[in-house]
Amino acid sequence: MRILVTGTSSGIGKAIANKFILNGHEVIGIDVKDSTITDTLYTHIKEDICSKKLPDISDVDILVNNAGVQNTGKDIDINLKGTINITEKYGIQSNIKSVIFIASASASTGSEFPEYVASKGGMVSYMKNVALRIAKYQATANSISAGGVITPLNTHIIENPKLWNAVLNETLLNKWATDEEIAEFVYFLSVTNKSMTGQDLLIDNGEALKSNFIW
Known about the structure:
By secondary structure, the protein is α/β, with parallel strands linked by helices. It has helices spanning 11-22, 75-90, 106-109, 114-134, 155-158, 161-168, 179-192, and strands at residues 2-6, 26-31, 42-46, 62-65, 98-102, 140-146, 149-150, 177-178, 199-203. Strands 3-2-1-4-5-6-9 form a 7-stranded parallel sheet, with helices on both faces. A two-stranded parallel sheet has the order 7-8. Strand 4, helix 2 and strand 5 (98-102) form a beta-alpha-beta unit.
């Protein structure tokens, strides 16, 4: 299948791309940064997801909306409007089988930076709209609301013992997810799953039951 993933330069997006590649799928990545993925099954497009000049990509089977920013002053423009821009171009078409949105646990708890929370909450609502519109193609749309994930974005927390212990204490399982774990869920929801649609999957090690934001 042909898989389109946004935000593949590092972290969760890179892990998602690698998961599909390892399973023999063609992956196209879109990111404003360069990618270090060199597999022959991977094609990288260096572009902003908000661009009105996105390239034409035919026959996308699975779209994974992962690209995003945090507390930049452009969270709503990039995380929400950029995601809508990508989805309307590549996801609403007869070949589509699944659209996945990487949201955030903060979309339901509100425990994050204000514009980031709003962008991810809007993403979950938009996911439901997409699920309604692609059902005629027998396609599914779902979102993953992740809590803490071990990625380069969170290095300043992971490498600070005081902050790291504090955030772990905010979870029931005393840990964060890895980007590979999130990739596994994405693969299941988009490839194995045929019946779950319009749903938001919370993967947060129990953090939402406490929902305090520590930075």
